[in-house]
């Protein structure tokens, strides 16, 4: 939700900032802006729409300067208009960009208005810049004025501040929203995500909660929330920079779908042997596994769906109770924590505000320990959890999560088996499961081979307004994930139900205009699911079935059949995910929507 970039250099920073914004567009893309400090003062451009609209303004009227801040917005307070786009100013000499939400902005706004400040936007952000301006009246040092101001703010923020008479420094700060410092040679930077700065540096400092940072060309000075100077370690980014290129693909989403065999291998690598799960993957403290008596999984969106699958695995393989909950619910209720419960969070980004809040709450509630399954090693979630299992999917740029989901499932499978081994799973069964996992990348490749067929099927969805996804067992969360993917990028209303629930209500929706997407695994539920399909066919519903050939459903009339490889039942949820990702991708392409940056959404949800 919103991305910020800041730079101080000996060269013009405009290009650096614009490139940074383009790389951050996944965080929000309804408007953007840049403020550049040069010897004549602070000048800015703001534009509604994607960063290209801002680039167009620079093409007509370039801005030149060696210190600057920039922002790409995902609207929270106020519509996506130029007036609401950042940077926001107090007077014409102090500019600020902000990611996050200031919860007490209303009383602060009233206070500032009483002091004579005029507001030009509807944003919560504008109060911060006026507060700093006000603080400067009694404390002329910009750094101290920012520090004083931050104590008045409730909520979450990452900010960057420039002032026209400060030609050798700018100030940034974070609390609740991510911010990383990029360290260069005679130039330094900040950004919401290190990806935004990979074109200028590979050296990063991850700021801690409450940190305020003063950046000059030659120095980065970090103050903690007590105002004490702190040394924070520099990390060197080790992803392949090409991971952020689309390569031969038209969209990031398709590139990321096709990367799945490779990244699932990377997720398994070093975590399983020929016969066993290697518990060393949980770090030196893997002793916690034997003490677990319950598991609470908390996550949002797609990550929550991965957690739902894991519930089936943990209860089935380990025989331990497992509950799964969306973080935005968990964080606001009184939670009963049974003895020896593992608190497990799932997050692609590791920056989702609700999941982080849930983790912080859980840490006060007496859980056995906290484990994060996450894709971003440097994320807040990873840093704040006792234990981590990284999914190793590499950067995921498309807003619709694909490879992050299947690698989360892979990591959850490893975790479920590891817990099960401590709860009596036989060595023989462990070996069987590990063998199945080893074949997973190949099966995912097989599933991808249906791409051309699915593209043809997708054409039939172009004029549909609704769709119903059905599954049973682990296929129910996959049906939920399939329906989320379809609505997210094609804007077709879609719902998912456990197939057995059909006759309890949703059957009323079924007619010749309603496509029904049924996920049919080859297990002991097959006959029951076939009966559910009969119920749909009898009411004229248009059936799209995803199953292996041995189910015999490929020869049925009135069924559009897509073959999914026949696999060990433990792998079914992962392998069945692939055709659903391809289906939503092709439907979105046919409909001409913005596949990688669907309307109203953002990749990293760092606000409540
Ligand atoms: O980064 P996280 O996994 O914590 O994000 C959670 C959700 O916001 C995310 O999965 C969202 O639902 C995806 N856009 C779905 O494709």
UniProtKB/TrEMBL annotation:
Glutamine amidotransferase type-2 domain residues: 2-218
EC number: 2.6.1.16
Xref: InterPro entries: GATase_2_dom, GFAT, GFAT_N, GlmS/AgaS_SIS, GlmS/FrlB_SIS, Ntn_hydrolases_N, SIS_dom, SIS_dom_sf
Entry annotation: catalytic residues: 2, 603
Localization (cell): Cytoplasm
Every SIS domain range: 284-425, 457-598
Main location: cytoplasm
Catalytic activity: D-fructose 6-phosphate + L-glutamine = D-glucosamine 6-phosphate + L-glutamate
Keyword Repeat: yes
Molecular function (Gene Ontology), one example: glutamine-fructose-6-phosphate transaminase (isomerizing) activity
Main function: Catalyzes the first step in hexosamine metabolism, converting fructose-6P into glucosamine-6P using glutamine as a nitrogen source.
Complex formation: Homodimer.
The name this protein goes by in its record: Glutamine--fructose-6-phosphate aminotransferase [isomerizing]
């Amino acid at each position: 939700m919103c991305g910020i970039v800041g730079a101080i250099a000996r060269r013009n920073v405009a290009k650096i900032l614009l490139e940074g914004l383009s790389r951050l567009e996944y965080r929000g893309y309804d408007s953007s802006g840049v403020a550049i400090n040069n010897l004549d003062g602070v000048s800015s451009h703001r534009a509604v729409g994607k960063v290209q609209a801002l680039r167009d303004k620079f093409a007509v009227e370039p801005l030149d300067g060696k210190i600057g801040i920039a922002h790409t917005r995902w609207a929270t307070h106020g519509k996506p208009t130029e007036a609401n786009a950042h940077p926001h100013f107090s007077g014409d000499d102090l500019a600020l960009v902000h990611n996050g939400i200031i919860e007490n902005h209303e009383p602060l706004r009233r206070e500032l208005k009483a002091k004579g400040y005029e507001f030009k936007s509807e944003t919560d952000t504008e109060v911060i810049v006026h507060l700093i301006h006000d603080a400067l009246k009694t404390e002329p040092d910009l750094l101290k004025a920012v520090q004083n101001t931050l104590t008045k703010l409730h909520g979450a923020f990452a900010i960057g501040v420039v002032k026209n008479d400060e030609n050798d420094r700018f100030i940034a700060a974070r609390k609740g929203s991510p911010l990383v410092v990029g360290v260069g040679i005679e130039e330094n930077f900040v950004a919401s995500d290190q990806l935004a700065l990979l074109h200028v540096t590979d050296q990063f400092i991850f700021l801690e909660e409450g940190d305020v940072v003063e950046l000059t060309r030659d120095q980065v000075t970090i103050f903690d929330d007590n105002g004490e100077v702190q040394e924070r370690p520099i990390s060197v980014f080790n992803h392949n920079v090409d991971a952020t290129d689309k390569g031969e693909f038209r969209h990031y989403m398709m590139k990321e779908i096709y990367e799945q065999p490779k990244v699932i291998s990377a997720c398994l690598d070093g975590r399983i042997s020929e016969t066993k799960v290697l518990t060393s993957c949980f770090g030196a403290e893997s002793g916690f596994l034997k003490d677990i008596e319950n598991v609470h999984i908390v996550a949002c969106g797609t990550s929550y769906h991965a957690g739902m699958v894991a519930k089936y695995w943990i209860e089935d393989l380990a025989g331990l109770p497992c509950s799964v909950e969306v973080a935005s619910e968990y964080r606001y209720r009184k939670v009963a924590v049974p003895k020896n419960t593992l608190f497990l969070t799932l997050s692609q980004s590791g920056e989702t505000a609700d999941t982080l809040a849930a983790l912080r709450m859980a840490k006060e509630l007496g859980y056995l320990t906290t484990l994060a399954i996450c894709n971003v090693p440097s994320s807040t979630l990873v840093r704040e959890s006792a234990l981590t299992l990284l999914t190793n999917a590499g950067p995921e740029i498309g807003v619709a999560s694909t490879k992050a989901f299947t690698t989360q499932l892979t990591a959850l499978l490893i975790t479920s088996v590891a817990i099960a081994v401590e709860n009596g799973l036989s060595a023989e069964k462990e070996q069987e499961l590990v063998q199945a996992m080893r074949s997973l990348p190949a099966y995912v490749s097989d599933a991808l081979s249906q791409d051309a067929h699915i593209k043809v099927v997708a054409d039939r969805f172009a004029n549909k307004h609704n769709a119903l996804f059905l599954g049973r067992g682990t296929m129910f969360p996959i049906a939920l994930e399939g329906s989320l993917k379809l609505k997210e990028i094609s804007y077709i209303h879609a719902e998912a139900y456990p197939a057995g629930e059909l006759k309890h209500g949703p059957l009323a929706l079924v007619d010749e205009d309603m496509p029904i997407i049924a996920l049919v695994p080859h297990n002991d539920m097959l006959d029951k699911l076939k009966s559910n399909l009969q119920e749909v066919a009898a009411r004229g519903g248009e059936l799209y079935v995803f199953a292996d050939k041995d189910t015999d459903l490929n020869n049925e009339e009135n069924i559009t059949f897509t073959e999914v490889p026949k696999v060990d039942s433990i792998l079914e949820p992962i392998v069945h995910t692939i055709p659903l990702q391809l289906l939503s991708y092709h439907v979105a392409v046919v409909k001409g929507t913005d596949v990688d940056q669907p309307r109203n959404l953002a990749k990293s949800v760092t606000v409540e």
